[in-house]
Design a protein that fits this description.
The complex is a heterotrimer of chains A (about 280), B (about 280) and C (about 350). With about 280 residues, chain A is mostly helical. Chain A contains 13 helices and no strands. Chain A is globular and about 65 Å long. Chain B has 13 helices and no strands. Chain B is globular and about 65 Å long. By secondary structure, chain C is an alpha+beta fold. Chain C contains nine helices and 20 strands. The chains are: A mainly alpha (about 280), B mainly alpha (about 280), C alpha+beta (about 350). Chains B and C meet through loops of B and strand 4 of C.
Chain lengths: ~280, ~280, ~350
């Protein structure tokens, strides 16, 4: 059947629908993106670069990278372990476990932050104990990392679990029957089969780790130069009416978001490419 | 030599280890903090909790958070359906690009979206200015929250409806048309019903996200107590006042709502799958 | 020194998939596990391989208690139904896998692995394809790669799960002969699972027929075909006619005055008589035939003719030589004499449509 005008609607109707949809898309979704770059470059490239080189901003960028560099590998490892457990075995409570892994997705960012304040804050369960022994968790890097671990927990696992379930365990069983150990089976047989899902999961995890705002805002204490990540820095600059600088930092995160979107398209295109796997690298 | 064997013996190795590690990590990072929250919140006693939840400021924050999230999810389902329709059924230049842009609110950090939307809808903004001329103020009013949640929730509806729409049995529509139904009739009676569970699911997802949204909203909201203040902000305010108990109660209620929505969404997804025959 | 299975039982949930199976596979034998789907044959194979474990029973392979050993220590090579080739490795890498994953002290040096891989590829007639990926070769070729991969680790026992199930009819027949050839050359103890009775009867030294988790009969193909132990086997292995009969004093009567056949082991009462289409001899209607049914229809199938006869209200099928039919000038409506060459009498617990 003709894909266009599938319900026999007139050409005009179709055109109107498309026009309407595109307009809404542009107004609602595209304009905000354009504004980010528009405002960032409003005073020219020079001002843009200058804003990014401010010491506070550089510190924020550095901190965001550090937190991501710690949290993402940990949650990637967790994602792989959890996916192996959930996708390869049947056991009672498996569905509950999957729901638990998905939980952080449905929790409000502020709530994700407050739970750690309740554990490590000045009136928290462990707070006073840790403070007495010189461990600073809340309002310091450890709290940021913990919150990030909580918030980005599901990302890699959610990509890997359906992928590994769809692939089945035939190849792994074959490897075991040929004498491979568990680790060998995972590294030589499973990993190559899930590499694109893993890549995309890590990308998503990283994007969220660098862009998380609400949860970090609660536990950070906003200590200049020490516990301010990029999103927090954006808030500070914006509230100081320094629009160019705020949007300059925002533009970096926006670029990261665009990179994630592009990577997703490429990965989707790649999956369909299973018919003729290339040998490059 | 011929011995009886105990039951569960798995071929693939690593079950015990991976299950143990998974449970340990989930307990430490996820369950323990949530437990702390519930313990703290319950330390308040039901009478006090009720009193807190019914103070005008709190009650109005809940009304705002819920009401606006619900309205935004509703409008999102209409827009989402339209977008899903044109992306699935029509071919036009730039379709693929548009399809990719749908995911933008998923990928864009909330603070970035927040300041961009505020700038856009402020009285001096590209969209805000013409609207202000018409007497409609968006930024710093509940309408601003509405727009922000519209932005954030849209992909949930589109991405939930799209696959179901793409898999629809076109022959049923063709049959309806040959039997004399007009385009709109066919849409209403043949196309829409099977899409309904998916639309509801997308709506529920958008709603759940909207209720707890923070970064996209606090810049554009205005945050005036009783008018445009959202519950997440209220929690932050209480924390800053060191009212841990109060903050916990609010956070706990948000959590209960999250879990409730999760349950509803799961049921809806189950319904979609059954209707759809997956 | 082959495989000894003793009272193996396995259940999945509420279903008893295997019920106290006892079977011996002689060294160097090619045994077929034949049965309908759900009969438990694949489960039995997987238990032998070590991919499932039984609730009760014993298993020895080459004299050792296999149940105490993981798959790799049992000396088996398994070929999966859907091949389970490693899709991200080349053919050569697939075949070499079992050798490469060995612990360092058991691992042969690289050049030796490569030599073995080449040798195996020549054996399965896939020379020159080593650099290809599984998705780039045909189904029959993939099957042979799976075989070569299993053989690379020099197993004592070869296990094949429905090896030709997913292939075209023509390829299936070719590979059948090729597999038999290979077996004769290598002399490996081989067990293969199939639901195709023609395949089992053509390939195997012995056939074990499973039904509902039990072994109904084990024996050389000829024995199983000519002297089936039960009605199920009779019906499963090829076309069959079934006629109701009555047993009296060790003899089964087809009708009041009908022909009678020996049925020494059955008590008096109702029973069924089974005969194959080619076991019915055609004679002139007025000779000393067992009966003279009317011809309902005739179909010519190449060199043979298939007749449907109305025997007392039951339709029976006869498979006869075409020249004979022409000579007798048979046509629908005419009468023909039949003599039943062999009749087997059973009293099955369950009757299925024949």
């Amino acid at each position: 059947m003709d894909t266009d005008r599938s319900l026999g609607e007139s050409r005009l109707m179709r055109a109107l629908l498309i026009l309407g949809g595109v307009t809404i898309l542009v107004l609602l979704l595209l304009l905000p993106l354009i504004i980010v770059f528009g405002e960032a470059l409003a005073k020219g490239i020079g001002a843009y670069i200058h804003a990014l080189k401010a010491s506070d901003t550089l510190a924020a960028i550095g901190l965001s990278l550090v937190v991501a560099l710690i949290a993402v590998p940990i949650n990637t490892l967790f994602g792989i372990i959890a996916a192996w457990c959930i996708a390869k075995f049947q056991f009672p409570g498996r569905n509950l476990l999957t729901t638990l892994v998905d939980l952080p997705f449905s929790v409000s960012p502020v709530v994700s932050g407050i739970v750690f304040v309740l554990l490590f804050g000045a009136q928290g369960w462990f707070g006073p104990f840790l403070q007495r022994h010189g461990f600073h968790i809340i309002f310091a890097l450890p709290a940021l990392v913990l919150v990030m671990l909580f918030v980005t927990l599901p990302f890699v696992a959610r990509q890997l679990i359906p992928l590994m379930e769809a692939r089945g365990s035939d190849e792994e069983e074959a490897a075991i029957s040929l004498g491979a150990s568990g680790m060998q089976t995972f590294l030589l047989v499973t990993l190559p089969n899930i590499r694109w899902g893993l890549f995309y999961g890590v990308l998503l995890c990283n994007a969220r780790a660098m862009g998380e705002f609400g949860a970090v805002s609660v536990v950070s204490g906003h200590i200049r130069g020490a516990t301010i990540t990029m999103p927090l820095q954006i808030e500070i600059l914006y509230n100081e009416f320094n629009a160019v600088a705020a949007f300059a930092v925002a533009s970096l995160l926006a670029l990261l978001a665009l990179l994630t979107l592009v990577a997703r398209r490429l990965v989707e295109w790649r999956y369909a490419d299973e018919l003729a796997p290339s040998r490059a690298g | 030599m011929f011995a009886s064997r105990p039951t569960v013996h798995r071929v693939l190795p690593g079950f015990g280890l991976t299950l143990g590690l998974t449970l340990f990590y989930l307990s430490a990072i996820l369950l323990l903090p949530l437990l702390a929250l519930f313990v703290r919140a319950s330390g308040m006693g039901p009478a006090q909790m009720a009193a807190l939840l019914m103070t005008p400021r709190v009650a109005s924050a809940f009304r705002v958070s819920f009401g606006v999230a619900f309205a935004a999810a509703l409008l999102d389902s209409v827009i989402g359906l339209l977008l899903a329709w044109i992306l699935v059924r029509y071919r036009f230049p730039g379709r693929r690009l548009l399809d990719a842009i749908i995911d933008l609110p998923f990928a864009l950090p909330t603070a970035v979206g927040g300041i961009a939307l505020t700038t856009l809808y402020a009285d001096t903004g590209w969209i805000g200015a013409p609207l202000a001329a018409l007497g409609v103020r968006v930024a710093f009013t509940p309408l601003g929250i509405f727009v922000a949640l519209l932005f954030v929730g849209l992909p949930y509806v589109v991405r939930t409806v799209q696959p179901v729409l793409a898999d629809l049995d076109r022959e049923a529509e063709e049959a309806a048309l040959t039997l004399g139904a007009g385009g709109f009739e066919t849409f209403r009676r043949v196309v829409l019903p099977p899409l309904f569970p998916a639309i509801l699911t997308g709506q529920a997802l958008a709603f759940a996200r909207g209720v707890g949204e923070y970064g996209s909203v606090i810049f554009i909201a205005g945050n005036m107590p009783g008018v445009s203040e959202i519950v997440p902000l209220l929690i932050v305010v209480r924390l800053e006042q060191f009212d841990y108990a109060g903050a916990s109660v609010l956070a706990g209620s948000m959590l209960v709502i999250s879990f409730g929505s999760l349950l509803v969404i799961n049921l809806l997804q189950h319904w979609t799958r059954r209707r759809h025959g997956h | 020194m082959g495989i000894a299975i003793s009272k193996l039982s396995k259940r999945f949930g509420a279903t008893q998939v295997l019920d106290a199976i006892t079977l011996d596979v002689a060294r160097g034998e090619l045994l077929a596990l034949l049965g309908p789907s759900g009969s438990g044959k694949t489960t039995l194979l997987r238990i032998i391989a070590g991919l499932e474990s039984p609730e009760a029973g014993g298993l020895t392979i080459s004299g050792k208690d296999a149940l105490a050993l993981p798959p790799r220590a049992r000396g088996i090579g398994l070929v999966f139904q859907h091949y389970a080739l490693f899709r991200h490795m080349t053919i050569a890498e697939n075949i070499a896998f079992g050798l490469r994953v060995r612990a360092r002290r058991h691992r042969p040096p690289r050049h030796e692995i490569e030599a073995r891989v080449s040798e195996l590829m020549a054996l399965v007639q896939l020379e020159g394809l080593g650099h290809r990926f599984p998705t780039q070769i045909s189904g029959g070729q993939r099957q042979r790669v799976a075989l070569a991969r299993a053989l690379a680790v020099e197993p004592n026992v070869l296990l094949l799960d429905e090896p030709f199930g997913a292939l075209d009819a023509k390829v299936r027949v070719e590979l059948r002969h090729w597999l038999r050839d290979l077996h004769d050359r290598l002399g490996l103890t081989t067990v293969f699972v199939t639901h195709d009775q023609e395949e089992a009867l053509e390939l195997a030294d012995r056939v074990a027929i499973l039904n509902g988790g039990r072994i109904e009969q084990v024996g050389p193909p000829r024995d199983v075909y000519d002297q089936p132990a039960s009605a199920f086997i009779m019906e499963f292995l090829g076309e069959v006619n079934r006629l109701p009969c009555r047993v009296r004093g060790g003899k089964a009567w087809l009708g009041e005055n009908g022909p009678s056949f020996d049925a020494p082991h059955l008590a008096d009462g109702e029973a069924f008589a089974y005969v194959r289409p080619h076991e019915i001899e055609l004679l002139e209607a007025d000779t000393l035939a067992d009966a003279a049914p009317r011809v309902r229809s005739l179909s010519v199938i190449g060199p043979r003719t298939r007749l449907h006869l109305d025997y007392d209200g039951h339709i029976i099928e006869v498979d006869a030589d075409r020249m004979l039919i022409d000579r007798m000038a048979l046509a629908p409506g005419g009468q023909v004499g039949v003599r039943f060459q062999t009749m087997r009498i059973y009293r099955p617990a369950v009757t299925r449509p024949v």
